[in-house]
Amino acid sequence: MKRLLIVSNRLPVTVDVEPGSLSFHPSAGGLASGLGSYLVSSEGRKTHTLWIGWPGAEIPAKMEREVGKTLLRDHHAVPVFVDAQTMSSFYEGFCNDTLWPLFHYFPSIAAFKDRFWDDYRRVNQMFCDTVASIARPGDVIWVHDYHLLLLPAMLKERLPDSSVGFFLHVPFPSFEIFRMLPARWRGVILEGMLGADLLGFHVNEYAHYFLRCVLRILGYDHTLGQILARDHLAEVDAFPMGIDYERFRDAALAPENVRRRDALRASVGDRKMIVSVDRLDYSKGIVNRLRGYEYFLRTCPQWRKRVVLALVLVPSREGVDEYQRMKRQIDEAIGRINGRYGSLDWTPISYQYTSLDFNDLVAFYAAGDVALVTPLRDGMNLVAKEYVASCVNQRGVLILSEMAGASRELGEAIIINPTTREEIAHALETALEMPFDEQARRLRIMQERLHKYDVQRWAREFLERLRRVRDQQKQFTSGIMTTEDRGLVVTRYHSANKRLLMIDYDGTLVPFARRPEAARPSQELLRMLGRIARQPATDLVLVSGRPKETMAAWFTDPALHIVVEHGAWIKRAPRGEWKLTRPLRSDWKESVLPILREAADRLPGAFVEEKDYSVVWHYRQAEPELAVMRAQELADTLTQFTANLDLVVVPGHRNVEVRDARVSKAQAALEFVRDQDFVLAIGDDATDEDMFRALPPAAYSIRVGVVATHARFNVPGYEDVVDLLMELVAEPRAGLSAAEGPRKASLT
User: Fold this and answer.
1) Which candidate, 327, 526, 699, 746, has a CA 20 to 30 Å from the CA of 78?
2) Cβ partners under 8 Å of residue 305, min gap 6
3) Is the pTM of this model over 0.90?
4) 454, 504, 539, 684: which one is catalytic?
């Protein structure tokens, strides 16, 4: 039986440590109940599931083994043991004082403390260690929520062949909000999430925001939600989480809950009942909700004494000053409204500060004529869906904030802006006066939709998509050079009598830099290339698109052959002169350069580079989204303009180049390919594909980047090229480029 490893901050069971004893009880929360209903479904029972998470308390070291055995035996759970101090800094600190307010658009109360960040990384690493200790080949690992944003990449580094999915249950913020994180954190968080093969969000809006942040901060573009990260293909999509619809519907029909519902209805007499239930949190818009209700009572006096707002507030973070201030504000608002509008025989707001068990909650929903759900920002909001499922008598109206993810699915609700008291008041009046047949019509549509896309289907579709993504990755990465492939290349190199190596520079030997002149080779790289070039019967050719002045200044070793401007100029070793590969004209530049300069003027950060026989428009420093659009426009314009000229327009890595159509790296390759018994060509972009195609069938060719190619092999990054060349000269790897950054954003 295949295994599913579910990883979340909390286990679905909480461990209480008491003097001399342990007790285990179910944890509260939508994830535990939602996934729990999937796991007991017919589809879920086909999978052996282990749940990995924190057990809810610090477990004394002497009791860890007993707790672990009991959780595994009785609950199919594996605990991550974290001490109380670290957990507090991780959970109360970075998760709830940094990420929660920022992701819910409350940046003014977000805390950015290095201590919180350090413990967040530490706890994510603890989770990684625990998962890695139990994972087996073929396991599917499903990571959940904002507590574990770094975990997917950590798992991929430890378990590169594992199947990893990630789902975010809260909103993902816009770039303008996300960028408020310190620069040293935000790239690491995005790279951490991109370690997953499939990333799921509740709605398309959040997925779009994530993709935009990845582009703006990491520079990775996407194609229909697919991101080609350094070492794998990641897919991003929306999967709106559902509820266990049948469980709520059946519970609402159960006789004991019908009696509970009727008792609640009797408590308000013949008045209309507005139900509202939420956890105490600033993101839920509770104060705004009360202001809207107060405005409704003021402007619709005909409804006074005819309606009751039944408000249930579930305690949360009671030790946090911010939450206690908010509770006092709520208490004061309720007191003010009841005092101003209430009477001896009518209290406008019935208020309870408590949690409800499942059956009481369903009865509460079923009793409501109207449900008022007004979060200021919410990933999904399952309360809205639960209310709709509980309206089994086809009576009830849902008022729902447009800031909740659920509003995208529940369009038949009355959708409002929760910050506007007038909209809340008008929605209440509309809902209370809505005819029963219209209520039933809206409910039927929403119930049918929720029934079709319930939590079981949500989980099933996510896991099925993850499987398809993994299959696609296998096809996509089938050409990646393995350790055995690399060993074969090294062996053939050393056994050859005559060798030829043709290697691109930018993106192949060094990373791309924001400005071309910043990608200067380091002394270590120059020494390594010189050692290869001086080996007996070996020709090393640097094949670059750069101008000859730059390459001549950087690479002065006479043992190196150099090809520049993609094959326009050649300088042969030793101490040869620069020669054109064919007669070329450059007078066409006079008509093309003004177009490129105008495009550069329209895009801050763009600039034009002029070479002898080509011109390049660079946009690596420009704002990525606008730059991509401007680059497409420019390429189209240039293609039309040069249609009758012997020129070619070549989009490259953050640039658009125009050059003579007769110039190519293929032509340069043919200048050097003779009777060698070992040929190796390495490059990273479309211009190198010409070179790969021109090589003899026995040649070895490598494309940097996991993309479709004519090369025999792919490698993920320039570091892999450097490692291979180091093996050819058996030299330990060191820093190679003055502009070189870390291989990826550090997770430690």
Assistant:
1) 746
2) 271, 343, 345, 346
3) no
4) 504
